[in-house]
Amino acid sequence: MFEAAEIDHKVSKEKFKEAEMELHHRVLTLQQRLRQSPKSLIIIVSGVEGAGKGEVLDRLNRWFDTRDVETHAFFDETDEEIQRPRYWRFWRCLPARGKVGIMFGSWYTKPIVDLALKRSDLADMDQELNRINTLEQMLSNDGTIILKFWFHLSKEEQKRRLESEAEIKKLKKSPLLKDFSKSYDAFLTVSERAIRVTDTGHAPWHIIGAIDMKYRDLAMGSILVNTLEDALEDSEESAKNTTSTTEESDDDIVASILNGEASHATVLDTVDLSQQLDDKEFDEQLQALQERLHGLAWDMFKLRRNMVMVFEGWDGAGKGSAIRRVTAAIDARLYRVIPIAAPTDEELAHHYLWRFWRQIPRGGHITIYDRSWYGRVLVERVEGFASKQQWLRSYKEINDFEEHLTNHGTVVCKFWVHIDQEEQLRRFKARETDPRKQHKITDEDWRNREKWHKYELAVNDMVTHTSTANTPWTLVAGNDKKFARVQILETICERLQAVVDAGKDREPSKSD
Amino acid sequence: MFEAAEIDHKVSKEKFKEAEMELHHRVLTLQQRLRQSPKSLIIIVSGVEGAGKGEVLDRLNRWFDTRDVETHAFFDETDEEIQRPRYWRFWRCLPARGKVGIMFGSWYTKPIVDLALKRSDLADMDQELNRINTLEQMLSNDGTIILKFWFHLSKEEQKRRLESEAEIKKLKKSPLLKDFSKSYDAFLTVSERAIRVTDTGHAPWHIIGAIDMKYRDLAMGSILVNTLEDALEDSEESAKNTTSTTEESDDDIVASILNGEASHATVLDTVDLSQQLDDKEFDEQLQALQERLHGLAWDMFKLRRNMVMVFEGWDGAGKGSAIRRVTAAIDARLYRVIPIAAPTDEELAHHYLWRFWRQIPRGGHITIYDRSWYGRVLVERVEGFASKQQWLRSYKEINDFEEHLTNHGTVVCKFWVHIDQEEQLRRFKARETDPRKQHKITDEDWRNREKWHKYELAVNDMVTHTSTANTPWTLVAGNDKKFARVQILETICERLQAVVDAGKDREPSKSD
User: Fold this and answer.
1) What's the structural domain count of chain A?
2) Closest chain A residue to B85 measured between Cα atoms?
3) Which structural domain, as residue segments, surrounds residue A366?
4) pTM of the full structure
5) Complex confidence, ipTM
């Protein structure tokens, strides 16, 4: 979930200045439109300690005309507040139509802090998160635009920062700081869950890396501008009774000003594509891993535990051949491969998750999806087959779906097989000249290539929204096919080994 | 919640036949439109044992062209189903676009049965209900129309029925029956919660009294027809890109065929308006109750428990004077009366619940709302100030709001002061001739009188959707003002006495 936010984006001073001025101007214009609309805006500023939330507040207060902006910090509870139902303090701070409320800390603070410091349990938090979802849904129905920012730092970066002279001076007065930074891991685990459960279509989370202050503020600003633009357009159009025809643009102004300088970097850029294996290493490792997997699959069968594998990746990345190396290791009675092509009539007539639900394996069995439900947030998003509202909503739908699986005890392995553009080009050309492979390359493959960057952004968002502790994404270094196959087999074996070692025959319990 | 469903509606054979034919015809026509739409229909048939759910299924199967209808019973789980995540069995049964799925038992069955038979706890059920809300929201977003019926019988009626010869013959084979009927109360309590938490705008519950078989089927049929008509109209209009201008009608065809014969009866008809007190009784009781309330209010103050009272009722029912009898008993430092008139500019600029949240009392204090958030489902519904979608949604919003209050330990008392039309007329006329009261009567009062039956239906629905174990509605017999005042004071004293007796100083806990 936080993978993409740990990339160190660098922005030059000049570019920053230019982009910042442009954002400032746009925010003011949009605020003027907000004033005349029946909508209100809530901005929730949250994240790890040391990420500069205070600086973000300053920036926001510089951009907005502050006459219609109120900033609320939810720190300690007043006497007045303690004596009333807990949400009273939030209700009294909700912005009126046309206005902006910036929340430093929010309804998220207490459930996260309480669980991380073990003052409550998971069931308490889940109940609280459901209340939050209900509240946000209700406000959103009423015309409130809800922007939720999570500013992230890696553990090392946080440590470095909190120990720097300047920071110590600034922060040493905060009474909670010691607790927070000591239990970074606990906080992050709890926050991940809180974000996942409340990452809804009407109030999605935006996770922003805070290593570089300039990048952080520009990323925040461009999300602010894009969200406001979409929301106000919808509202102005519905006032005019016309149907929306505008295509929501993924291109943001900051990206165009930076001209790809910093903002182009995605999680995919963190994959080291130079990794490779020679033939001998490959043969040895492949054989060992396949034997191991063969045994593990039978162990899983005995435990009645089932497994789901998802393969996504670029055209030509070698998903098919990687899957064959996996299936070659497993007894044919134990697995099925489901290639996901265009949906059938029957599938089209149902919810998009229906075709995947129907293929869920029985206990002890394995289903391998060659492309999957992630098509919703990849091809359907990029090609515009799903509206922005639909694909934004589907992150939570997918996370809920996968939670049904993992609650039942299903092991979920998700692979994105990554290659770079040059490697793809090489493979496409090879396919065209190889008569045995010509059927594998179509005009569409070439067309998709032109949308490379849009797909990169979609993959980046997909990993951010759906890579969780129980269902992590594995980004596979696919330029060398041999390396990729071994990486995939290793990952699968490790996940299964952990289950088999835990050894408990987890019967589907009542609550799954 | 089940108050309205315990009214014994009688329908004559002739009227039934006429209405049944009409419904059959309408259902077929609507099914034809459904086939050509991108929507699907799920009908959930649930309720207490003995309510004739099997007969309802037969009826539905007679009305629909069964080629596009599938009926699913979720009784025991198959081997195939046990080995997969629990929802797999539901996903495989979801109807395709254009089709109808009737569910006899559903995703509601297991959570309700498990908790009622103490196989799970409340937290388990709540988690499951949240999953259900997520599922229904997702299906509804995808174009599925979800109709949820709960067929109700009172405990006595159920007992009578299950012991009748004919029924014993029919039912004796059901292995679960004994469990169910023995624990009627447990089932009802659990079901009430399940219904309340999942009574959403996109998938509202319909609670139908099943004493009279003919009334039961007609009520079900008319809800089916109305819901389908609204949903298909929306979908056809959005296909044509026009804005909906149709006013959803509350009048149903069955009511018009029955011509008020049976369907007019609402919960208000269960109030015995002939009850009265003579002056002596009144004076004695009033004094005793007021003294008692005075003490109880101070006891509550010592316990730091707060209280909210809601007064709704017909124009001229005597809310104001009843409130004065209450406040006269309480120390002025402990209460506030909030008269709810037209919202202020500031209030209009917020969510409709905001103006009520802001008046929530501190610990130990009392807020009395003279009219309340229920305006949303009363005047705003009847006058069309809120769209059907909005007021349907608000039942859950209101229940959630009141749960925030009760979770905090707030006592919530809700009164509908009832009078009949003749009594209102008498009082209006008296007001017109009494110079001291002329200011109390306006043209609007006369206009509202014409909508009497619409208000009756709105009150009936309000009580059905929002009268719960912790926040029950009290229907006050208001034709005799003296009786009404005593009834109100008695109710308040009893509620407070229970809290004071429980005596525990319930400090606002972390989870409130």
Assistant:
1) 2
2) A408
3) 268-502
4) 0.81
5) 0.77
